[in-house]
């Protein structure tokens, strides 16, 4: 066996270029959790400022959706602050008016 002969063919070498699949492209620009997080903040503020219980409950629902769809790499501070804001909106709306919640479409019928 000759140590000077190299069995590799340098003229046949092709540099590897990774291809982007459709799943990787979609997962990189998935911004639905961000939009739901913003909606949760808006509903929380509406629930706190306008004393709307259904807005406070929608904010809590949006924060659950945002948590369920969030990535591991995202910071937990935003999710935790959104939860705290929505929970405080629900608690404050019931502290100000302890009556059961009436949906907005039920008030239009009466």
From TrEMBL:
Regions crossing the membrane: 38-67, 79-95
Pfam families according to UniProt: ASTER
Compositionally skewed regions (Basic and acidic residues) per UniProt: 1-16
Keyword Transferase included in the entry's annotation: no
Keyword Membrane found: yes
Annotated localization: Membrane
Region (Disordered): 1-32
Entry keywords, A to Z: Membrane, Transmembrane, Transmembrane helix
Comp. bias intervals (Polar residues): 19-29
Assigned GO CC terms: membrane
Chief place where the protein resides: membrane
InterPro entries, per the entry: ASTER
Family: Belongs to the Asterix family.
Protein name listed in UniProt: Protein Asterix
């Amino acid at each position: 066996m000759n140590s000077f002969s190299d069995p590799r063919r340098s003229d046949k070498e092709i540099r590897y270029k990774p291809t982007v699949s459709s799943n990787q492209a979609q997962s990189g620009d998935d911004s639905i959790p961000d939009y739901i997080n913003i909606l949760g903040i808006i509903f929380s503020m509406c629930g706190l400022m306008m004393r709307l219980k259904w807005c406070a409950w929608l904010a809590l629902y949006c924060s659950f959706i945002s948590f369920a769809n969030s990535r591991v790499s995202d910071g937990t501070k935003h999710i935790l602050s959104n939860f705290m804001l929505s929970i405080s909106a629900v608690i404050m709306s019931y502290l100000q008016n302890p009556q059961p919640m009436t949906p907005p479409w039920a008030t239009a019928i009466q």
